[in-house]
Specification:
The chain is an alpha/beta fold. The chain has a single domain, classed as Response regulator (Rossmann fold, 3-Layer(aba) Sandwich). Helix content is 36%, strand content 15%. It contains four helices and four strands; from the N terminus they run βαβαβαβα. A four-stranded parallel beta sheet has the order 2-1-3-4. α3 links the parallel β3 and β4. α1 crosses α4 and α2 packs across α4. The longest helix is centred in the C-terminal third of the chain and has 24 residues. The radius of gyration is 14 Å and the shape is globular.
Length: 143
């Protein structure tokens, strides 16, 4: 049975979408992965672009509200921004709550080489953390 993982961010537009893509890419056979936001918007086109650069397609993802998942059991609930951690609803059950904070790349700006560099930097941080978790099935559980 696949372990269920919910990744939360504020807008569910960038960081949580990238994390969902990475975890599905490397661990889709072992994990059922979803992402959501406390104030969902739309999937950021620059996030889609920089993920495509590393061979992970998130172009069909959609931004979802965390309320879509209330009442569902998860093994892990991972917040990837401080705001989501502070505003995350309580998920009943034995799911482990984790907080892996990543910087927010610049949204709503012209796509310059500097903006792309920031998105790539955040993508790489998320990629490394979630790839390792997928490959080792280690989400910081107690031994």
């Amino acid at each position: 049975m696949k372990r269920r993982v919910l990744i939360l961010c504020t807008g569910n537009s960038c960081r949580s979408q990238m994390a969902e893509g990475v975890l599905r890419h490397y661990g889709g056979d072992r994990f059922e992965v979803a992402s959501a936001g406390t104030q969902p918007s739309r999937v950021n086109s620059t996030a889609i672009q920089v993920m495509e650069e590393i061979g992970i397609d998130i172009s069909q993802h959609r931004s979802k509200h965390v309320e879509e998942f209330l009442g569902q059991p998860f093994d892990f609930i991972i917040t990837v921004c401080d705001n989501a951690r502070e505003n995350c609803p309580v998920f009943p059950g034995k799911g482990k709550h984790l907080h892996w904070s990543f910087p927010d790349p610049p949204h709503g700006q012209a796509i310059t080489p500097e903006v792309l560099a920031e998105f790539r930097k955040v993508r790489d941080l998320i990629h490394d953390k979630f790839k390792q978790a997928a490959e080792t099935s280690d989400f910081g559980e107690e031994p």
